[in-house]
Write a structure and sequence with these properties.
The structure is a single chain. With 496 residues, the protein is of the alpha/beta class. It has four domains: 102 residues, NAD(P)-binding Rossmann-like Domain (Rossmann fold); 53 residues; 114 residues, 3-Layer(aba) Sandwich (Cobalt-precorrin-4 Transmethylase, domain 1), CATH 3.40.1010; 151 residues, Methyltransferase, Cobalt-precorrin-4 Transmethylase, Domain 2 (2-Layer Sandwich), CATH 3.30.950. The chain has 18 helices and 17 strands. The strands form four sheets. The protein has a five-stranded parallel sheet with strand order 3-2-1-4-5, with helices on both faces. Strands 10-9-11-8-12 form a five-stranded parallel sheet, sandwiched between helices. A five-stranded mixed sheet has the order 13-14-17-15-16. β1, α1 and β2 form a beta-alpha-beta unit. α1 packs parallel to α2 and α5 packs antiparallel against α6.
C-alpha cells in the first residue's frame, strides 16, 4: 500500500485557532441583556459603550445594574419584567445573566431559534461567542481570549499590555483615522505610505499627542521627520521588576540605548529587541567613558533622528549627573525628558524592612555622596550631616567610609549610632552588614560593587529576623567586640 506523504505547510500558514477573533461594529444596532445575575451590569455598560442601544429585561436589578441603568439612561433601556421570546426580534446579539437556575438553556435555545448569536454568562457550552479581556485605547481596541481555558491568564496578559501602551495612544489613533484619506492622496505610492505609517506608529508609542500634527505634516513637506530625542531613564538599583511602566515604554521605543555599567542584564532584556545597545559606563579606577564623550554621542545620535535612551542606574536625578547632560542637550537644541527610577536608598529600606524616617527617632532623611571629583571626601556641611534626628544615606562611600565616620563623630554624632552597609542593593548578589559609626572608623569595605551606607537611629529598630538575615549575608568585617557597651545590639548573638 502506498504511503501518503503529507504536503509541507506553506510559509506563514495560519496555525490552528481555538476561536476566531472578530471585532463587531454594534453602533446603531440593538442588543438584548436579560437577567440581573453577576455580570449583567458590566455587560450592559460594555455593549452600550460601543454605541449600541441596549435593552435590559429584568425585575429587581441588583445595585451594580441599577447604577449602570441610572448612569447610562441615554443608551440603555430597562424593561422591568422577565424576557420573552419576542424580545429577540430585531436584536443583533443577546446576553443572558441569570441568578435562578433553569433559565440558561431556555434563553440560549430561544435566541438561536430567532437567529440571534447568544452569550450566557459563565456557561461556555451555551455561548456562540465570548468576551475577552479588553485593553481600551479606542479606536485601538485589544481583546485577549484563552477560549475559556484560563480567564485569569487573559487578565494577567491584559495587565502586561496595559503597562506597555500609553493612554495617549487613543489620541494618536484618532488623528490617524482622520488623516488617512489625506495621506493617501499625498503619498500615492503604497511603499511610501507604508513607511510613513510605520514612522507614525513608532511616534505614537513615545511622543505626546500634540506632536501628531507635526508628524502628519511630513508627507506634505516631502521630508522625513528627523527630530531625534533623548530620554534619561532611571533603571533602578538592579532588579528589573522595580522599573516603572514609563521606563519600560521608553526602552521599548528606543533606537539606541546608552547604558551604565551598573545596569543589570535583566533590565536590558526589557528593551526593544532591535534597539542598539552601547555601554558607556563610568567606574571608579577603571577604564571608563568620559562624560564629554557621552554628551557628544547623545547629541550626534539625536541629530541623526534617533530615539536615544540614556539608561542610568537608580534615579537619574540623584548623583547621576543628569543636570550636566540635560544642560548640554538643551544647549544643543536636542529635546530631552526624564523618567524617574527607584533610587538605591528606597530599595535598601524596602529590602531591610526599615523606614528611612520614623516619628520616634528620624524626622528627616539626607542623601549625600562621599566621593568627590578627586576621589576624596567632599567638602560638605558635616555638622548638618551629623544631626541625630536625621537618617543619613551615603552613596559611593565605600572608599571614604573611615574618613566619613571620623568626620561625623568629630561633629558630634555618637559613636554607637547604627550603620548599615549594603552592596548591590536589590540584585541577586545583595550583601549587607550592620555595625556602628565608631566601628566604621576602622572597618575595611570591599569596593568591587556599588556600596550604600545608611547611618541613623532608625536602623537600631531592625527586627530579629532582619538582623539574622543580615548576619547570614554579611560580607563586611566588623571591627568591634561582643559585649561592647557602645553597640546597640549583641554581636555575639548575631554571630551564633
Amino acid at each position: 500500500m502506498k504511503t501518503l506523504t503529507p504536503e509541507p505547510r506553506r510559509p506563514n500558514a495560519i496555525e490552528d485557532l481555538s476561536v476566531l477573533p472578530v471585532f463587531y461594529d454594534l453602533a446603531g444596532k440593538t442588543v438584548l441583556v436579560a437577567g440581573n445575575g453577576d455580570g449583567a451590569g458590566w455587560k450592559a455598560e460594555l455593549l452600550g459603550a460601543t454605541g449600541a442601544h441596549v435593552i435590559v429585561t429584568c425585575t429587581a436589578p441588583d445595585p451594580e445594574l441599577s447604577a449602570v441603568l441610572a448612569e447610562h439612561a441615554d443608551r440603555i433601556t430597562h424593561l422591568e419584567r422577565d424576557w420573552t421570546p419576542e424580545d429577540f426580534n430585531g436584536k443583533t446579539l443577546a446576553i443572558g445573566a441569570f441568578d435562578a437556575a433553569g433559565q440558561d438553556e431556555t434563553f440560549a435555545a430561544s435566541a438561536r431559534a430567532a437567529g440571534v448569536p447568544v452569550n450566557v454568562v459563565d456557561r461556555k457550552a451555551l455561548c456562540d461567542f465570548q468576551f475577552g479581556s479588553i485593553v481600551n485605547r479606542s479606536p485601538v481596541v485589544i481583546s485577549i481570549s484563552t477560549a475559556g481555558a484560563a480567564p485569569a491568564l487573559a487578565q494577567a496578559i491584559r495587565t502586561r499590555i496595559e503597562t506597555l501602551l500609553p493612554e495617549t495612544l487613543s489620541a494618536w489613533a484618532g488623528k490617524a483615522k482622520a488623516a488617512r484619506a489625506k495621506i493617501k492622496s499625498l503619498l500615492p505610492d503604497a511603499a511610501q505610505r507604508k513607511a510613513f505609517w510605520r514612522r507614525f506608529a513608532e511616534a505614537a508609542l513615545t511622543r505626546a499627542p500634540e506632536e501628531a500634527e507635526h508628524v502628519l505634516k511630513q508627507p506634505a513637506a516631502g521630508t522625513r521627520d528627523r527630530r531625534g530625542h533623548v530620554t534619561l531613564v532611571g533603571a533602578g538599583p538592579g532588579a528589573s521588576d522595580l522599573l516603572t511602566m514609563r521606563a519600560v515604554r521608553a526602552m521599548q521605543a528606543a533606537d539606541i540605548i546608552l547604558f551604565d555599567a551598573l545596569v543589570s542584564e535583566d533590565v536590558l532584556n526589557l528593551a526593544r529587541r532591535e534597539a542598539k545597545r552601547m555601554l558607556v559606563g563610568k567606574r571608579g579606577h577603571r577604564a571608563s567613558c568620559r562624560q564629554e564623550d557621552i554628551n557628544a554621542l547623545m547629541i550626534g545620535l539625536a541629530r541623526q533622528g534617533k530615539r536615544v535612551v540614556r539608561l542610568k542606574s537608580g534615579d537619574p536625578m540623584i548623583f547621576g549627573r543628569a543636570g550636566e547632560e540635560i544642560e548640554v542637550l538643551k544647549a544643543a537644541g536636542v529635546p530631552v525628558d526624564t523618567v524617574p527610577g527607584v533610587t538605591a536608598a528606597f530599595a535598601a529600606a524596602a529590602s531591610l524592612g526599615v523606614p528611612l524616617t520614623h516619628r520616634d527617632c528620624a524626622q528627616g532623611v539626607k542623601f549625600i555622596t562621599a566621593h568627590s571629583r578627586d576621589g576624596r571626601l567632599p567638602e560638605l556641611d558635616w555638622r548638618a550631616c551629623a544631626d541625630p534626628a536625621t537618617t543619613l544615606i551615603v552613596y559611593m562611600g565605600g572608599r571614604t567610609a573611615n574618613a566619613l565616620a571620623d568626620k561625623l563623630i568629630a561633629e558630634g554624632l555618637e559613636a554607637q549610632t547604627p550603620v548599615v552597609i549594603m552592596r548591590a542593593v536589590s540584585g541577586p548578589g545583595e550583601e549587607r552588614d550592620k555595625t556602628t559609626l565608631g566601628a566604621l572608623t576602622s572597618t575595611e569595605i570591599r569596593v568591587d560593587g556599588p556600596v550604600l551606607l545608611g547611618i541613623g537611629r532608625t536602623f537600631a529598630g531592625m527586627s530579629a529576623s532582619s538582623v539574622a538575615q543580615i548576619t547570614r549575608n554579611a560580607v563586611f568585617p566588623v571591627t568591634c567586640q561582643a559585649g561592647d557597651p557602645k553597640m546597640p545590639f549583641d554581636v555575639a548573638a548575631q554571630q551564633s
